[in-house]
Design a protein that fits this description.
alpha/beta, single chain, globular, 7 strands, about 20% strand, 3-stranded parallel sheet, 5 helices
């Protein structure tokens, strides 16, 4: 489960993350600008950060028509992280299971592998802001993925 920080916390003057962000199998995403953390800064429940500042998004205008606007915050950062996770899972699928029917791919195992050994592994993050695990380094993950010829070898690298 991927969650964002609930902004209602600001109105309650607290620095804690509410549910679902603190569930064991959730990944709580914070928003980060190029050089600073946006929104909640010091919280031990934030797992990682993703770009969430000045993101182009759609919204309804007063005529109920979709228009583009610039938004910032955790609601923009969480979809960025979803895309990163999808790229990692798709990369594993295409690299190691290119000829299999999607029904034959061990997608549950791959998802748990990504969750347990990539998303919660500090060697795949840059924590220059010293909060949570930091910002995920997709390029390092993809480069490691490309170095291995078999799924089992890649899996062993992650587990060890």
């Amino acid at each position: 489960m991927l969650t964002h920080i609930e902004n209602v916390c600001f109105y309650l003057s607290c620095q804690t993350i509410m549910y679902p962000g603190i569930f064991e199998y959730s990944l709580c995403v914070g928003s980060v600008a190029s050089t600073s953390i946006d929104f909640i800064k010091n919280n031990t429940y934030i797992d990682c950060f993703s770009a969430g500042n000045n993101i182009c998004s759609l919204r309804n205008n007063e005529d109920n028509k979709n228009i583009y606007s610039i938004k910032s915050g955790t609601s923009m950062a969480t979809p960025q992280m979803s895309g990163i996770i999808a790229l990692i899972i798709d990369g594993i699928y295409k690299k190691f299971f290119p000829n299999l029917n999607s029904n034959d791919v061990p997608i549950k195992e791959i998802t748990m592998l990504v969750h347990d050994y990539i998303l919660f592994n500090e060697k795949f993050y840059n924590n220059y802001l010293n909060c949570g695990r930091g910002i995920i380094l997709l390029d390092i993950i993809i480069n490691k993925l490309l170095q291995y010829d078999s799924y089992n070898d890649f899996k062993q690298y992650l587990i060890n």
